[in-house]
Amino acid sequence: MDILIKSTKVVDPASKHNGKTVDILIRKGKIEKIGKDLKAEGKIKVYDHKGLCVSPGWFDMNVNFREPGYEQKEDLMSGIKAAAQGGFTGVACKPSTNPPLHTKAEIEFVKNKTKNQIVDVFPIGTVSKERKGKELAEMFDMHNSGAVAFSDGKQAIENPRLLSLAMLYTKGFNGLIISFPDDARISASGKMNEGEVSTTLGIQGIPAIAEELQISRDIFLAEYNDTPLHISSVSTAKSVDLIRQAKKKGLKITADVTPHHLSFDDSLLAGFDSNYKVKPPLRGKADIKALVKGLQDGTIDVIASDHSPEDEENKKVEFDYAAFGIIGLETTYAAVNTTLSDVLTQEQIIEKTAINPRKILKLEIPSVNEGNDANLTLFNPTQKWIFTEKEIRSKSKNTPFTGNTFTGKALAIYNNGQFSECG
């Protein structure tokens, strides 16, 4: 679709138009011209919106689309709709499927089923066969078929020798291991953060050390093997400090944090609402402050949704038996902008939601410059709106953000020659 975007402020540090308000003309999927007072000639859509900003298309490197195997929770097409609704033009999906994404057949299935969509979908292969942590999966074959990284999802690699071998193996083809920091021998059957709230409620807690020990071990292994390591869903103050110290040593460590760990603390579980039940669990207020500081100083590189759809059968049950997980694609930018707009600039938010994820995964980074393929997100950082179920495009509804008033909204995306308005 050809389109003329009127009076939009560019938020892109790689663009010579960064910070300027311009018109953008897109023809045949490419940015043909950027300037002032451009005219629409011929058959072309004109898009104009008060307070409009444009950035490189947002990218979420931590989503779960559940297909194959759990399509009642989410399938690839509904996941794409949820991503588009939230302003994302690209996602990397974890292998939390059945079967897992553990051979080139599953990787090619995801790639083939999602090709030519407005949202680019990049599969993440498993580290171990069937995510069982026993032996290495066919990582090189998956890499050649399009896997952008390797992870066992929310099952940490318990065996340090296996993880070390995986690091060495992926080093041969410049691959990336994504670590989920949870020592299951410590977190065991915990349901929420271990602390005053869990003690008061009589719920078995998940100690912060379950995350921190795993991070410490995995950093040591990355240093020993001289390989990059991405740590997913960081949630504690000590974890941030461990990553900060590793970066100061020059280690190739990166990390992401979720919007819900920046927005909510464990006191909200006093009502036993299973929509707040996530892993890693919501932590304390001091942890949130440390996470925010980590974003500000660059210790934490990426904000990612950890979009984890769960159907009602797994969520609308007693708290102890409810599944962990929150959907987040539709609310990531809004939640982060609402919570952090006074401590992060729009450029910093875009860096952590559009640029750094692609940089870590070694993907092409789009920019708002003439001659480039148009891969853009249009948004209004000051628009106030109420998030309701009608904004949800995911098959699942497990989110505690329903009813929240947000400041900042994704308005539309343009990618692969296609244009879609958000909601």
Layout of strands and helices, then pairs:
Elements: E1 3-10, E2 21-27, E3 30-35, E4 45-47, E5 53-56, E6 58-63, H1 76-85, E7 88-93, H2 104-114, E8 120-123, H3 139-145, H4 160-171, E9 177-179, H5 184-187, E10 192-193, H6 196-201, E11 205-206, H7 208-225, E12 229-231, H8 237-248, E13 253-257, H9 259-263, H10 285-297, E14 302-303, H11 312-315, H12 332-340, H13 346-360, E15 376-386, E16 405-415, E17 418-421
Parallel strand pairs: 1-4, 1-5, 6-7, 7-8, 9-12, 10-11, 12-13, 13-14
Antiparallel strand pairs: 1-2, 2-3, 5-15, 15-16, 16-17
Helix pairs in contact: 2-3, 4-7, 7-8, 8-10
Instruction: Extract low-pLDDT stretches.
Output: none
CATH architecture of the largest domain: Alpha-Beta Barrel
Secondary-structure-derived class: alpha/beta
Proportion of strand residues: 15-25%
**What is the C-level CATH assignment of the largest domain?**
Alpha Beta
The CATH topology of the largest domain turns out to be TIM Barrel
Radius of gyration: 21 Å
Largest sheet: 8 strands, mixed
Mean pLDDT: 97
According to DSSP, the number of beta strands is 17
Number of helices: 13
Q: Name the CATH homologous superfamily of the largest domain.
A: Metal-dependent hydrolases
Secondary-structure element string: EEEEEEHEHEHHEHEHEHEHEHHEHHHEEE
In total, the number of domains comes to 2
Helix content percent band: 25-40%
Shape category: globular
Roughly how many Å apart are the termini?
Answer: 19 Å
